[in-house]
Amino acid sequence: MQSDVTRAHYDRLADTYDENWAYSPEFIAWMTSGILARLKLARADRVLDVGCGTGLYSCGLAEQADVVVCTDPSSGMLAQLPNDERLLPVHAGAEDLTQGRVRLPHDGYDAILLKEVVHHLPDPSQVLSDLSGLLRPGGRILVVMLPMSIGYPLFDAALRLFQERQPDPQAIATALTDAGLNADLTYEEFPLAFTVERYARMVRSRYMSLLSSFDDAQIEEGIAEIRRRHPGPELRFPDRFAFVTGVKA
Ligand SMILES: C[S@@+](CC[C@H](N)C(=O)[O-])C[C@H]1O[C@@H](n2cnc3c(N)ncnc32)[C@H](O)[C@@H]1O
Fold it and tell me: 206 in a domain, yes or no?
């Protein structure tokens, strides 16, 4: 997806993003603890949350660190960031940072998070290599992303498009190794449950950016396909994530 299309998608979604993505306090707590377990923050750490969105995970980072610089190219998403002096908003895409178009407030960071962002980067390996250069000695970078195939109860055309677009977590791990970091790839999943009605609303609001590639008629056809496949009132499926960590010696 091109960056201006992506930005428009997230600006439009910003007001309802937390409703869609904060599936439950349990999900946020589960994901936050998975992130914190890997980033191993210390109280004095400076953190960079690249593509922070509304700051759903920046807040958990801020509780264990000194400061979290929250960057996102969508002003709509960034506007939802909680008002907290430990969260420093920076309006920028990852490439704006790595190519020097936007200056960060510090020279180096102890931890960098990219959660569900890497699929938006035209050249993830280059951006990750450049971001690795911002790590202080002992610094950690964590990429949280969906695997190449997902068990979401979406319609077939959406699942096919996902598979075409989603980067391979193993390639991300290789990019971190190539950038001189000690890389590690693990997977974990969280069980999700929604009523079909709620999931239909999420699909209609294009809760995943790839759904923006479908027009209204295609989305309604897709929802009808989901309803045909799942005649019961509830949808249960695992949300599986790849966690790719890179540590600078
Ligand atoms: C799925 S959301 C994830 C937001 C947040 N990290 C979270 O997990 O809640 C993807 C975010 O990536 C941002 N994004 C899109 N393109 C980007 C880019 N080139 N560099 C950095 N962030 C980008 C979007 O604006 C959006 O806020």
Answer: no
